[in-house]
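Section 4.2 – Deliverable D4.2 (structural model, holo form)

The reporting period included a commitment to supply a predicted holo structure for the target in complex with zinc ion. Inputs used:
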Amino acid sequence: MAEPVWSSNEVRTCLSCGKPLKGRSDKKFCDDYCRNNYNNQVKANTNNYVRNVNNALRKNRHILESLLGIQEMIKVSKQRLISEGFQFKYHTHTYTTTKASTYFFCYEFGYLPLEGDLVLIVKKKDHQPTTS
Ligand SMILES: [Zn+2]
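Output (structure tokens):
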């Protein structure tokens, strides 16, 4: 991240509380209190982001699981997933088959984008012996 460049006439302000700063030109905070406050805020924002992504992934997984039910695979429309709250930008990993189809997985549940508005929902079969 680029550091802000301050001209000498510019009034620098504390990154934490926004009060004007005096003293050294590389100063960013009034004092340790403001520095700690700011750093804690940055950390909290990072934790929030991680939590939000985790929640979105778990929700995606839950939606795939509940739509699939006991079936091995099922075709549904993207719109259906979106209406359930599915967020296509979040997935844990992808799997590309030898036929160059790329499945997007949220944990052990995945989907393959099909023609038009459809996706094919599948469940990963890790624990089955491969006979093919
Ligand atoms: Zn301050």
